[in-house]
Amino acid sequence: MSDIEELPDTEHLLAGMRAHMPVASAPFLVEGRVGLVIVDEVNGFATAGAGNLAPPAQDDQVDRMVSETDRLASEFDDRGLPIAAFLDTHQSGKPEPPYPPHCETGTGEEDLVPAPRWLETGPGAALIRKDCINTKGP
């Protein structure tokens, strides 16, 4: 039996993911089509001086990443392909050890960096706020 045949069906897989990742979900499945996934390209991680985990000053590598993300997103959008952007978003004052406070709701750190912000109003994009990836921790 191949590895593919051993994979659980889609509903079983999604149920397992929901149990381990407390992310508010919305339907965003487009069968038979390739999509783009953007993870945590938010001000608090990628805008110079925007927060505890952002680069302290302008950074060429981060700028190239943001520019490439914007280019790819535009290409996917032009082709009518789906885009999902996960945005790190935390409740104010709720600790997330070992990290300092970051991307707290209402600070602006939790928002997309400026270049691809057009995705917020694009019909082919889903912005998904999340406050963690793994609740079990190390």
Explain what this protein looks like in three dimensions.
This protein is of the alpha/beta class and 138 residues long. The protein has one domain: Isochorismatase-like (Rossmann fold, 3-Layer(aba) Sandwich), CATH 3.40.50.850. 28% of the residues lie in helices and 12% in strands. It has helices at residues 3-6, 10-20, 43-46, 60-78; strands at 36-39, 83-88, 125-130. The chain has a 3-stranded parallel β-sheet, covered by helices on one side. Residues 1-7 have low confidence and may be disordered.
Query: Which bin fits the share of residues in helices?
Result: 25-40%
Average residue-wise pLDDT: 83
Count up the helices: 4
Distance between the termini: 34 Å
Strand order of the largest sheet: 1-2-3
Quaternary? single chain
> Structural class given helices, strands, pairing?
alpha/beta
